[in-house]
Design a protein that fits this description.
Distance between the termini: 25 Å
CATH architecture: 2-Layer Sandwich
Order of helices and strands: EHEEEHEEEHHE
Number of strands: 8
CATH class: Alpha Beta
Strand content: 25-35%
Number of domains: 1
Shape: globular
Number of helices: 4
């Protein structure tokens, strides 16, 4: 199943945090090729504590052969291994944030997992990198492509493309 994961970091060596998370994801047992990686984008924190540093964000997509619940557990384990507290408050600084964005056309809505991610279509820091690798993707519960969703977002949300090589 084609699966998308957003990666973000705003604490420590942000680029290395993203690299380490991507390596760990790609090494998971259920992950298979082709693996697509967006460039790295730098974004201002939105709705976060004052003085919070800028985020680095990216999106990767891959084939995943196991269940989405298995993947979310693996993503939480990767976050913990990279120093994220398990009960981390929303919108706080973090070494790594891994969000499962979509899992094929699956729709899931429970306390542990919501697919597709319920706010991704409103987040420029997710849509800009995703549009780079899958511009024509139409997400479950959406009628427009990722490119079209991105085009309708507010231009004031600053998202700066930094590097493709990471």
């Amino acid at each position: 199943m084609r699966t998308g994961v957003a990666l973000g970091s705003n604490v420590g060596d942000r680029l290395e945090n993203l690299r380490a998370a991507r390596r760990a994801i790609v090494d998971l047992a259920g992950v298979a090729s082709p693996i697509l990686s967006s460039a790295i984008y730098e974004t201002e924190p939105i709705g976060c504590e004052p003085g919070m540093g800028k985020f680095l964000n990216a999106v990767i997509e891959f084939e995943y052969e196991d269940a989405p619940a298995d993947l979310i557990n693996e993503l939480r384990a990767i976050e913990a291994s990279l120093g994220r507290e398990p009960r981390h408050e929303r919108n706080k600084s973090r070494t790594i944030d891994l969000d499962l964005l979509y899992f094929g056309d699956r729709k899931i809505d429970n306390e542990k997992l919501q697919l597709p991610h319920p706010r991704m279509h409103l987040r420029k820091f997710v849509l800009a990198p995703l549009a780079e690798i899958r511009p024509d993707l139409i997400l479950p519960r959406q009628a427009k492509t990722v490119r079209e969703l991105l085009a309708q977002l507010d231009e004031s949300d600053k998202v700066v493309r930094l590097t493709k090589d990471w």
